[in-house]
């Protein structure tokens, strides 16, 4: 029996206009406390912490653990939160820690985003791109979307159907930032940001945080009468797959997927639920294709209803409707997957969800995402 389970989750919902005085450390602390309580634990039980944040700097995990009053034997700091999950599961399995809280988030409002891009995102961006009228990631992913449209002969509506589906799911999620219905006509008529991307193709910047607790199942069972066991069947990562020399339409998930299926012992057709990192619609389609869900995106889109949410894909509403809280966006899908597998999602609950796949994609040096991580989660009895 695997020792490590996901025992608790916490979420501070995204907001575009945070209350005065709310900063990144406060958001992270609040999410941690919620997740630890959800796991039925106290801070004295927690002996590990992993942090995913752009704007916590110059503070690191040890500074946050001090603010929380934690004494730990394990700490880590990553931007892709599924990389933290990979490390935390192995730490619990090895006995390095018995309860690790992982937290991701930022106060990623306009000023925070500007500061990150100009000063601290990466030396390549700072030294070579920040001074150019690039316009941030929207322009880069507009080029990728153009390339994807040309390769597969897809109209803009293709990407809009994904955005509309995710908004339909968001309407059933009280934590989503935008819940009002979105039609394909509204999508196509929306103001252009960077051709062919309109405002509904770009995730809204927000402030918020999410957290999960990875713990030894024996500890959790000792603290709770009922133990909702969410097992991580597999987790795998890929970094610098093509060293920025590829076309950007094949992501690191293409390298991750074979290991996910081998480690987990399941196939893509067995999966009930996908939470795919959705910084832009094109990247959702690229990652689903890399996972092996389909070969031709045009045929896949054509098989999906226009006005009904796509079953089992980004049921939280994703970042496009839920808001991108900086590095916190990489954990939003993980928290949603746990809710679906627990059966606690409420109005957006999938029937009898047993297997979920979650992905992270990002860390763009200057052209494409250099990092990708995937995980297979399972509800066990």
Automatic annotation (TrEMBL):
Gene3D superfamilies (UniProt xref): 3.40.47.10
Pfam families according to UniProt: Thiolase_C_1
Transmembrane parts of this sequence: none
UniProt GO molecular function: acyltransferase activity, transferring groups other than amino-acyl groups
All residue ranges annotated as the Thiolase C-terminal domain in the record: 240-363
Name this protein carries in UniProt: DitF protein
């Amino acid at each position: 029996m695997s020792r490590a389970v996901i025992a608790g989750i916490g979420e501070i919902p995204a907001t575009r206009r945070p209350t005065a005085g709310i900063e990144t450390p406060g958001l992270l602390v609040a999410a941690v406390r919620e997740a630890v309580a959800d796991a039925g634990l106290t801070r004295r039980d927690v002996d590990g912490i992993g942090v995913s944040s752009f704007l916590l700097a110059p503070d690191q995990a040890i500074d946050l653990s001090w603010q929380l009053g934690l004494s730990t034997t394990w700490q880590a700091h990553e931007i892709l939160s599924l990389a933290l999950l990979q490390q935390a599961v192995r730490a619990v399995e090895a006995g390095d820690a018995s309860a690790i809280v992982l937290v991701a988030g930022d106060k990623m409002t306009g000023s925070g985003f500007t500061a990150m891009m100009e000063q601290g995102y990466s030396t390549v961006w700072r030294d070579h791109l920040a001074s150019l009228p690039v316009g941030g990631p929207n322009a880069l992913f507009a080029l990728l979307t153009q390339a994807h449209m040309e390769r597969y002969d897809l109209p803009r509506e293709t990407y809009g159907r994904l955005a509309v589906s995710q908004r339909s799911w968001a309407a059933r999620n009280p934590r989503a930032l935008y819940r009002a219905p979105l039609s394909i006509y509204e999508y196509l008529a929306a103001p252009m940001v960077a051709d062919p991307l309109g405002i509904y193709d770009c995730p809204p910047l927000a402030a918020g945080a999410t957290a999960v607790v990875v713990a030894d199942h024996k500890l959790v069972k000792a603290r709770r009468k009922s133990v909702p066991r969410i097992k991580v069947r597999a987790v795998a990562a890929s970094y610098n797959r093509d060293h920025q020399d590829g076309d950007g339409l094949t992501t690191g998930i293409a390298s991750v997927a074979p290991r996910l299926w081998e480690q987990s012992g399941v196939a893509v057709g067995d999966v009930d639920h996908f939470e795919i990192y959705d910084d832009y619609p094109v990247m959702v389609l690229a990652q689903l294709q890399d996972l092996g869900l389909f070969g031709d995106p045009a045929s896949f889109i054509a098989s999906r209803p226009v006005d009904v949410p796509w079953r089992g894909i980004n049921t939280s509403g994703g970042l496009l409707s839920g808001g991108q809280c900086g590095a916190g966006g990489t954990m939003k899908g993980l928290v949603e997957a746990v809710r679906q597998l627990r059966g606690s999602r409420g109005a957006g609950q999938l029937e009898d969800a047993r297997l979920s796949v979650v992905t992270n994609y990002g860390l763009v040096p200057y052209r494409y995402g250099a990092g990708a991580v995937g995980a297979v989660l399972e509800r066990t009895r």
